[in-house]
């Protein structure tokens, strides 16, 4: 197998993760070296046996480098990616590809002009919890799914430094929203009809520290996407309602269950329960005879890893699992959400 040589621009959290965990497990790639502005990270790279380039141009002019990984703050993705493609390198870019859809369209134009591949690392398509949701959606075990709730929540605020600043593409919409929207739009083959979003600024940053978005699709599916950084207790990672059952995935450790209605004509009436100071039959649990509980399914199978797919794209002409048209669709959706939030602020300013 001919190995492809990759140069890494940005050796922070994600850049080092690619090198130490993803690329180290991919037979088709070898590391040329890294470039990073941080002297501390340069030293760590050297200690890990990696070559350290003086600057990104040194990577661009290295004839041994086939492709470049861009793992820098969000606002620099566009400039570095374009420079790399003009230098004849294919590009793998961390998410979000760019801060705006217009910027992404410019990058994709350069990709076409230079005949260089531009592939975005939307790695959450491979998450086991999402692949369980994908199987439930596609196989209909809980009937026709009509509502999906997707949440990631924590209580640590906005991490890092540049993620607090708008000019660098900070905020949770760009940090986590890009993952969760990618999962949903990749899953659902139907246009989005309506969008409503509430962005949170309770921590006082100039960028959002979380958000809740409600999407309605043309096929009738309703989706809630929520990201929070001020949640000291968490709601389930996924909550999925179908016409024949409900599924719940609590966390990334895949704790959860599926409850399915039994197909029988002799379902017992629910017994009223005491609820607070009253009685209710409506909210009583279904009888044991009317439902069955199962563990979570194993999840849909991804036949290739992210880097296996990239290797096949660049050496065999395969189709990328992460299509740039899909990434552009996400960027346009997030642009709409950002514009809606700006409009809300402008409307409320008259009362200030």
Write the layout of secondary structure elements.
Layout: E1 4-9, H1 13-22, E2 29-35, H2 39-47, H3 56-60, E3 67-70, H4 77-86, E4 90-94, H5 101-114, E5 118-121, H6 128-139, E6 145-153, H7 172-187, E7 192-200, E8 210-217, E9 222-228, E10 238-242, E11 245-249, E12 256-261, E13 273-275, E14 278-280, E15 291-294, H8 306-316, H9 324-348
Parallel strand pairs: 1-2, 1-3, 3-4, 4-5, 6-9
Antiparallel strand pairs: 6-10, 7-8, 8-9, 10-11, 11-12, 12-15, 13-14
Helix pairs in contact: 4-5, 5-9, 7-9
Write up what this structure looks like:
It is a single chain. The protein is an alpha/beta fold. It has two domains: 4-121, NAD(P)-binding Rossmann-like Domain (Rossmann fold); 125-294, Dihydrodipicolinate Reductase, domain 2 (2-Layer Sandwich), CATH 3.30.360. The chain has helices at residues 13-22, 39-47, 56-60, 77-86, 101-114, 128-139, 172-187, 306-316, 324-348; strands at residues 4-9, 29-35, 67-70, 90-94, 118-121, 145-153, 192-200, 210-217, 222-228, 238-242, 245-249, 256-261, 273-275, 278-280, 291-294. It has an eight-stranded mixed sheet. Strands 2-1-3-4-5 form a five-stranded parallel sheet, sandwiched between helices. The longest helix is centred in the C-terminal third of the chain and has 25 residues, at 324-348. The radius of gyration is 23 Å and the shape is elongated. Residues 345-352 have low confidence and may be disordered.
């Amino acid at each position: 197998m001919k190995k492809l040589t990759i140069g890494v621009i940005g050796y922070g959290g994600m850049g080092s993760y690619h090198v130490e965990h993803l690329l180290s497990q991919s037979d088709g790639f070898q590391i040329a070296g890294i470039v990073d502005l941080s002297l501390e990270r340069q030293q760590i790279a050297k200690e890990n046996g990696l070559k350290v380039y003086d600057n990104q141009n040194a990577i661009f002019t290295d004839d041994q480098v086939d492709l470049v990984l861009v793992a820098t703050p969000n606002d620099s993705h566009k400039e570095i990616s374009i420079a790399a493609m003009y230098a004849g390198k294919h590009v793998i870019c961390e998410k979000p590809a760019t801060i705006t859809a217009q910027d992404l369209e410019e990058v994709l134009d350069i990709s076409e002009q230079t005949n260089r591949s531009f592939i975005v690392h939307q790695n959450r398509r491979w998450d086991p919890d999402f692949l369980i949701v994908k199987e439930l959606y596609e196989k209909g075990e809980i009937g026709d799914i009509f509502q999906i709730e997707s949440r990631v929540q924590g209580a640590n605020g906005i991490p890092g430094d540049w993620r607090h600043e708008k000019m660098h593409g900070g905020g949770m919409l760009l940090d986590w929203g890009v993952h969760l929207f990618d999962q949903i739009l990749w899953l659902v083959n139907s246009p989005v009809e309506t969008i409503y979003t509430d962005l949170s600024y309770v921590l006082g940053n100039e960028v959002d520290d979380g958000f809740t978005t409600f999407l309605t699709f043309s096929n009738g599916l309703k989706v809630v996407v929520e990201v929070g950084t001020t949640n000291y207790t968490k709601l389930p990672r996924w909550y999925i309602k179908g016409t024949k059952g409900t599924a719940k995935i609590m966390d990334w450790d895949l704790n959860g269950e599926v409850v399915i209605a039994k197909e029988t004509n002799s379902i017992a009436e629910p017994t009223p329960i005491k609820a607070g100071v009253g009685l209710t039959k409506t909210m009583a649990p279904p009888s044991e005879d009317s439902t069955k509980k199962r563990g979570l399914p194993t999840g849909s199978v991804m036949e290739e890893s992210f880097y296996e797919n990239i290797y096949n794209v660049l050496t065999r002409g395969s189709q990328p699992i992460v299509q740039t048209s899909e990434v552009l669709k996400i960027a346009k959706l997030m642009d709409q959400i950002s514009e809606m939030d700006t409009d809300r602020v402008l409307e409320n300013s008259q009362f200030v």
